[in-house]
Amino acid sequence: MTSKFPMTVQGARALEEELAHLTKVVRPKLSKEIGTARELGDLKENAEYHAAREQQGMVEARIRDIEGRLQHAIVIDVTTIAHTGKVIFGTTVDIANCETDEQVTYQIVGDDEADVKIGKLSVSSPIARALVGKEEGDVVTVKTPSGLIEYEIVQVRHI
């Protein structure tokens, strides 16, 4: 993982909070559990010890993963970028389906932050790729499994 990738301020903050929780709460708790399990005797047949060690390995792997992601992230604060009406990474975009007039709102975020259920759309998704670089009032065509869908960009916000 040597290439840089974009991340919103909120995404970076969430990773930093998870990292702090893992290093300051979970890691010490697991160390205590391992110590307690070790005192129970024979380590070969000590299920509590092996479970705690396995959990410790997963936590340490997640800590390394988060540290790597933060190290290679380019954190973009869209609120500091002048509003031009153009869709860029980090903006929140209101789009309307041209056929049904159904309106949805998405924030264009990094791959790690994406969660369509809460309106966070990966910058590498087909919809985001169609939107980035376009402006308010533009109509974009998105290829979906059910066919082509046209969306009009209603509003672009830097929030």
Automatic annotation (TrEMBL):
Domain of life of the source = Bacteria
Entry GO MF terms: translation elongation factor activity
Where the record annotates domain Transcription elongation factor GreA/GreB C-terminal, the positions are 84-157
UniProtKB keywords: DNA-binding, Elongation factor, Protein biosynthesis, Transcription, Transcription regulation
Residue ranges of domain Transcription elongation factor GreA/GreB N-terminal in the record: 6-75
Name any one Pfam family assigned in the record: GreA_GreB
Q: Which InterPro entries did the record assign?
A: GreA/GreB_C_sf (IPR036953), TF_GreA/GreB_CS (IPR018151), Tscrpt_elong_fac_GreA (IPR006359), Tscrpt_elong_fac_GreA/B (IPR028624), Tscrpt_elong_fac_GreA/B_C (IPR001437), Tscrpt_elong_fac_GreA/B_fam (IPR023459), Tscrpt_elong_fac_GreA/B_N (IPR022691), Tscrpt_elong_fac_GreA/B_N_sf (IPR036805)
Q: What does this protein do?
A: Necessary for efficient RNA polymerase transcription elongation past template-encoded arresting sites. The arresting sites in DNA have the property of trapping a certain fraction of elongating RNA polymerases that pass through, resulting in locked ternary complexes. Cleavage of the nascent transcript by cleavage factors such as GreA or GreB allows the resumption of elongation from the new 3'terminus. GreA releases sequences of 2 to 3 nucleotides.
The similarity annotation says: Belongs to the GreA/GreB family.
Protein name per UniProt: Transcription elongation factor GreA
Query: What species does this protein belong to?
Result: Serpens gallinarum
Instruction: Name the lineage.
Output: Bacteria, Pseudomonadati, Pseudomonadota, Gammaproteobacteria, Pseudomonadales
Annotated gene: greA
